[in-house]
Amino acid sequence: MKATIERANLLRSLGHVQSVVERRNTIPILSNVLLEATADGTIRLMATDLDLQINESLEAVSVDVPGATTVSAHTLFDIVRKLPEGTQVSLTAADGKMQVVAARSRYSLNTLPRDDFPMIVEGDLPTRFELPATALRQIIDKTRFAISTEETRYYLNGIFFHVADDGQPVLKAAATDGHRLARVTIPRPEGAEGMPDIIVPRKCVGELRKLLDEVEGTVEVSLSATKIRFGLGTAVLTSKLIDGTFPDYSRVIPTGNDKLLRIDPKSFMAGVDRVSTIASDKTRAVKMALEPDRITLSVTSPENGTAAEEVPGSYSSDAFEIGFNARYLMDILSQVESDSVEVHLADAAAPTLIRENDKSAALYVLMPMRV
Question: What is the pTM of this model?
């Protein structure tokens, strides 16, 4: 194989694929990126961790000898990243080595044969639809903070997608870690009817979100009950899905919370942030005392002392106190884009519902804490 590629193009594509590769691998070839140069002047890159796979295509300046090899993904990325801007990179592979030449730099890297490189077999992906990149970005941004990191409850380690009929056909995306729940509802895309319920793993969500920053227009989504593929322009991301049953989260969404607080999310979040400065790292508990049109945030820390702050808000129900984990509350408030947020409360022990209004796509549920 012998090909020449513009540094900027190679760096961008390597940036996409190398982040899928784990830093530590017991199987050496999983540390590598597959590079394939074809006679029509296209370079294809592929990386995988056996659960997630990314393919990327880019145009070469020239392909003198078509062929394929695999080389350390992180090493090649670091080399190209440090090369001078505007240079062309020549890659020549033969006899178990790859020569990388650019400007005055020369490298010789060890390679492994492409035939040993594993690939995810997609199989049939019967459900196919398109989603605007902006809608997919919104879904991920407004839900992924609530994905659980607890490996024992592996079925919560991703975003749950399912279709439903709420007066009109919709696609819902939800994530929860047992302490908070985030859900986004959008109109069901054409082609998504009959789609199986799926859980997209956390790592796939993270890689997909990075790629979406460079995508305008739509994303092609193809899926089965076990695999999903995202077509993002020059990149294709394929992932296995989590094999598990997501809990019926609709049961924890409160419907009878009759105490309504309307508040500016930015000033609310800033107040929570300030008083939680002295909260102990373990609990991060903030107490919220509600009286008609008077909301007082306070923290009592045995090690550090106390803090209190009044924040402006509209509240006209009975006075009571409730406690929340400050970080969980701030994670939710940071996703609210409007100037007002509705906090629907019941009592100090019941789940609290947070949303912009009853027409907003996103909805959040937060479990209270004892304080």
Answer: 0.94
